[in-house]
Amino acid sequence: MIMKNNIIKILRNITLPAIVVSAMMVVLILAPGCGKEAGGAGRMKIAADIVPMADFCRAVGGEMVEVEILVPPGASPHAYELTTGQMRFLADADVMVTVGLGLTPWAEEILSKAGNPDLATVAAGDAIPVAQLIPAALHAQGGEAGEAAYDPHVWLDPNLARYIITAIRDALIQVDPQNALIYRENAAAYEEELAHLDAEIRGEMATLSSRKFIAFHSSWTYFAARYGLDQVGVIEEQPGKEPSAGEIAELVEKIESQGVRVVFAEPQFSTRAAEAIAEESGGGVVVEILDPLGDPDDPASDTYLEMMRGNLAIIVEALA
Ligand SMILES: [Zn+2]
């Protein structure tokens, strides 16, 4: 009996460490395949609808992610058709990040076509508390999509961008929990950058002598609301639908009666209407271009932060 007990004890002493060692070896063997790797083929594949969303993804994902921008620089997200190459990328992507709020009505449609049930999706509009969204009174959607409930240009308020960063961070952690710490640290650092940008804008806004502007379309609605600017009117309520003679006359009347000094156009659209309105208004009304999207190939707007600082400088100069 004593012998048998001793043998069992010995077996136990051998077996338990052996099991632990085997389990550790299994973990060690599996580990490299579990998490995403920085650089190379192991990177997480993210599709983002517009340049600023792609930049947010890079800010949070760093070297761990490969980001494909769906709407190329210079194009308007309001109407865009994906290429077959982009559809292939989506079929095999890990995460898709969009603004939502009806900005890219085509994005919902392609999700079903991409044939990728494992794709994690982030929509900025869902990440922002409804109380902070602005009704889309000035931003009727063109085409068959119907009128959107809320204005989609949320990323142009750095305070709302922080919610987007948090949502992207959580999606990346969900897909790649092993590197959660990296995503958390990157997101926290970028949120600090956004807070700096916000403070910088607030400081500059305090110096303006005029707060009124006419916009090409409703891009700057959230920015204006946050920083106390007055968007007196927009040229195209539906981006891509040119204003009628009556609408132009109405804008000219507003400019003259309210002493508006600047019309903000956009690089993604023709400046013709803005120039015509400024000219008809007379009295030194200027047309300046604010870029709501940025361009990864332009060093002046290749990141969201650069783009916003560039826009801020133009706003300050126009309204000083
Ligand atoms: Zn827009």
Named at the architecture level, the CATH assignment of the largest domain is 3-Layer(aba) Sandwich
CATH superfamily of the largest domain: Nitrogenase molybdenum iron protein domain
Q: Can you count the helices?
A: 11
Q: What is the first-to-last residue Cα distance?
A: 97 Å
What is the helical fraction, as a range of percent? Answer: 40-55%
Strand composition percent: 5-15%
Account of the 3D structure:
With 320 residues, the chain is α/β, with parallel strands linked by helices. The chain has two domains: 40-199, 3-Layer(aba) Sandwich (Rossmann fold), CATH 3.40.50; 201-319, Rossmann fold. The chain is 49% helix and 11% strand. It is built from eleven helices and eight strands. The strands form two sheets. It has a four-stranded parallel β-sheet, with helices on both faces. α10 links the parallel β7 and β8 (286-289). The N and C termini lie far apart (97 Å). Residues 6-11, 13-17, 23-33 and 138-146 have low confidence and may be disordered. The site of zinc ion has 5 residues, from loops. Zinc ion (ZN) binds next to loops.
